[in-house]
Specification:
Blueprint lengths: L2 H34 L6 H19 L3 H22 L8 H23 L15 E4 L2 E4 H23 L1 H11 L1 H6 L4 H26 L8 H14 L3 H21 L2 H18 L13
Antiparallel strand pairs: 1-2
Helix pairs in contact: 1-5, 1-8, 1-9, 1-10, 2-3, 2-4, 2-8, 2-9, 3-8, 5-6, 6-8, 9-10, 10-11
Membrane topology: Multi-pass membrane protein
Pfam families: BPD_transp_2 (PF02653)
Subcellular location: Cell inner membrane
């Protein structure tokens, strides 16, 4: 196969892995925004907390990397639950206040981690089987990026099952569509919001644990993912299927443009395309089937 075509094929695979990273980062935000309409500005810091949770578990307790993933989900999910009960629960009817409050939470979390752990980068180790490359014909694939793509598929599948195939998911969809009507059937919307916020926070923590193996762990690392997370959610329309489609498209566009130009210019072009798309379709790829009340 011609070298140029091999490089282009590798860039397409890289685009899927980039889209998987953005999707994993955006999954928790999709759930929180899609259910409660909360724009969680602390989402990037929840990702950062997941990375530091994995670091602490591995550095101080010797927990294997794969076991750090579910434990980080639980730890950050509990932190999110506390923040929701203490602060966010009082602001659901005030979107601007929620935006400012969660931004304040993000600053507190970032500075708190900096005080506790300092600003020096931290590192965690991966299993050996995730540190190698796999050769599929002429294509060279990173084992960890394949792991991320498989993980994204599993997380989306689990989230879809929870929302569309469980009793709890029925309550989530009922509250999302009409919380007053849901309350008339005995559904406690406040409790649903609490569990949903905790679930979204836990997914952000799981994403952070995964990204801790991909990059260095820093108090400011969440800022590197939060912009793309919001773009995935907004471009997808706030729906799970929309976020999947948006992440895949954005990842491929970013990778293909980077193949022909460079990564910085590719990101610039990607943002321009998103702005143009939202100008003509502000509801996103998948418009919500019902209006949140």
């Amino acid at each position: 196969m011609d070298f140029a075509w091999v490089s282009f094929a590798n860039s397409l695979v890289l685009g899927l892995s980039i889209g998987s990273i953005w999707l994993i980062a955006a999954l928790g935000l999709t759930i929180i925004y899609g259910t409660a309409g909360v724009i969680n500005m602390a989402h990037g810091e929840f990702i950062m907390l997941g990375a530091y949770s994995a670091y602490c578990l591995q550095a101080f307790l010797g927990v294997p990397f794969l076991l750090c993933l579910p434990l980080s989900f639980v730890i950050v999910g509990l932190i999110g639950l506390v923040i929701e009960r203490v602060l966010v629960r009082y602001l659901y009817a005030r979107p601007l206040d929620t935006l400012l409050a969660t931004w304040g939470v993000s600053l507190v979390l970032m500075q708190g981690i900096r005080i506790i752990f300092g600003s020096e980068p931290k590192y965690i180790s991966m299993p050996e089987f995730l540190s190698s490359n796999l050769m599929l014909g002429p294509l060279s694939l990173s084992s960890f990026r394949i792991f991320l793509m498989v993980g994204a598929v599993l997380l989306v599948g689990a989230t879809w099952y929870l929302i569309y195939r469980t009793h709890f998911g029925i309550k989530i969809r009922a509250v999302t569509q009409n919380k007053e009507m849901a309350a008339s059937f005995g559904i406690n919307s406040s409790r649903i919001y609490m569990y949903t916020f905790a679930l979204g926070s836990g997914l952000a923590g799981l994403a952070g644990a995964l990204f801790a193996a991909l990059n260095i762990v820093l108090p400011t690392m969440g800022a590197g993912y939060v912009v793309e997370s919001f773009l995935v959610v907004v471009t997808g329309g706030g729906a799970l299927a929309g976020s999947v489609a948006a992440a895949a498209l954005m990842g491929e566009i970013q990778s293909v443009f980077a193949f022909f130009f460079n990564s910085t210019f590719a990101r610039f072009l990607l943002f321009i395309l998103i702005v143009i798309f939202l100008r003509f379709r502000p509801q996103g790829l998948f418009a919500a089937g019902a209006t949140r009340r």
